[in-house]
Amino acid sequence: QVQLVQSGAEVKKPGSSVKVSCKASGGTISSYAISWVRQAPGQGLEWMGGIIPMFGTKKYAQKFQGRVTITADESTSTAYMDLSSLRFEDTAVYYCARGLERFAYWGQGTLVTVSS
Amino acid sequence: DIQMTQSPSSLSASVGDRVTITCQASQDIGNYLNWYQQKPGKAPKLLIYDASILETGVPSRFSGSGSGTDFTFTINSLQPQDIATYFCQQYDHLPRTFGPGTKVNIK
């Protein structure tokens, strides 16, 4: 049974960066893609990008290009999402999810609050 | 980017009712469409993929249809545990995009 466990909530100042982790169990992260999806309070779902660790392939939504970096450490089966130059409007729950097309397994979500 | 729209944005129905949600894509996406259910404070749950295929373990009262730009999601007999927000999502093009969601309540 695939499980994705994310790191805990973060409070960050505007202009800083945040790095959220997503550890996979029940399978090696090398064998599938990981996407990152965020959801601002009371809002819809927004795909940020994804990675296929086996091939080192990364895809990013144009909206986040230059601010987001997605990486994966196959030795620890952990994926990471690094978002820089944080703005108030980046306050959201950030989810990792398995896949690049359909998302059948999700992490529990990590709340990132951007506050001065 | 492919824009996804959903209607209605919210609905109220009685237990046992048939509920229908529509999703429209801004361009032809074939059958590359998924449906998710999200309950408050929880991650989304995949219900239907490839427009009409039920994910393993999902009750058969849920169904999906459509292709091209117009899609439909149906709950055949609404149950109290179906109270949630439902999202469509396309994967024909990058970036993957979601509909704005339909909130389903019990009347």
Give an overview in words.
The complex is a heterodimer of chains A (116) and B (107). Chain A has strands at residues 3-6, 10-12, 18-25, 34-39, 46-52, 57-60, 68-73, 78-83, 92-98, 110-114. Chain A has 116 residues and is mostly beta strands. In chain A, the strands form two sheets. A six-stranded mixed sheet of chain A has the order 2-10-9-4-5-6, with no helix packed on it. A four-stranded antiparallel sheet of chain A has the order 1-3-8-7, with no helix packed on it. In chain B, strands 2, 4, 5, 6, 9, 10 and 11 form a seven-stranded mixed sheet that branches. The N and C termini of chain B lie far apart (36 Å). Chain A binds chain B through residues 35, 44-47, 49, 59, 61-63, 95, 97, 100-104, 106-109, and chain B through 1, 32, 34, 36, 43-46, 49-50, 55, 87, 89, 91, 94-101.
The coarse silhouette of chain A is: globular
Shape of chain B: globular
- Based on secondary structure, the structural category of chain A is mainly beta
Structural class of chain B: mainly beta
Question: Number of helical segments of chain A?
Answer: 0
Average of pLDDT of chain B: 98
Count every beta strand of chain B, where a strand is a DSSP E run of 2 or more residues: 11
Q: Taking strands numbered 1, 2, ... along the chain, how are they ordered across the largest sheet of chain A? A: 2-10-9-4-5-6
H/E topology pattern of chain A: EEEEEEEEEE
Strand content of chain B: over 45%
Order of helices and strands of chain B: EEEEEEEEEEE
> Any idea what the radius of gyration of chain B is?
13 Å
State the helical fraction of chain A: under 10%
Q: Report low-confidence residues of chain A grouped into runs of 5 or more.
A: none
N/C terminus separation of chain B:
36 Å
**Which parts of chain B are unreliable, with pLDDT below 50 for 5 consecutive residues or more?**
none
Number of strands of chain A: 10
Oligomeric state of shown chains: heterodimer
Q: Sheet with the most strands of chain A?
A: 6 strands, mixed
Number of helices of chain B: 0
